[in-house]
Amino acid sequence: MLFDPPKCINCGKEIEDGEQVYAKLRYPKRKGFTEIKAYLRNEASFLCESCFEKKD
Ligand SMILES: [Zn+2]
């Protein structure tokens, strides 16, 4: 499946495969969902590691 690569909400950098990221998201309501990537794309905001480290 193809997904648009997630981007850092601070600098706009694309999150690369295997990169460590910080995500803000709502915990899913439904149990047993498997589409984790789709869920993250719809619900999560990502922050790349370098931006996270720059924050206070
Ligand atoms: Zn960033």
Features:
56 residues, globular, binds zinc ion, alpha+beta, 2 helices, two-stranded antiparallel sheet
Question: What would you say this structure looks like, in words?
Answer:
This protein has 2 helices and 2 strands; from the N terminus they run E-H-E-H. The N and C termini lie far apart (37 Å). It has a two-stranded antiparallel ribbon. The mean pLDDT is 82. The protein has one domain. It has helices at 36-43, 49-54, and strands at 21-24, 45-48. The structure holds zinc ion. Zinc ion binds at residues 8, 10-11, 13, 48, 50-51. This is Fe3+ hydroxamate ABC transporter substrate-binding protein.
- What class do helices, strands and sheet pairing give? alpha+beta
Overall geometry comes to globular
Structurally, how many domains make up the residues? 1
The amount of beta strand, in percent, is 5-15%
> What value does the average pLDDT take?
82
Rg for CA atoms? 12 Å
Biggest sheet: strands side by side, in what order?
1-2
Ranges with pLDDT <50 over ≥5 residues? none
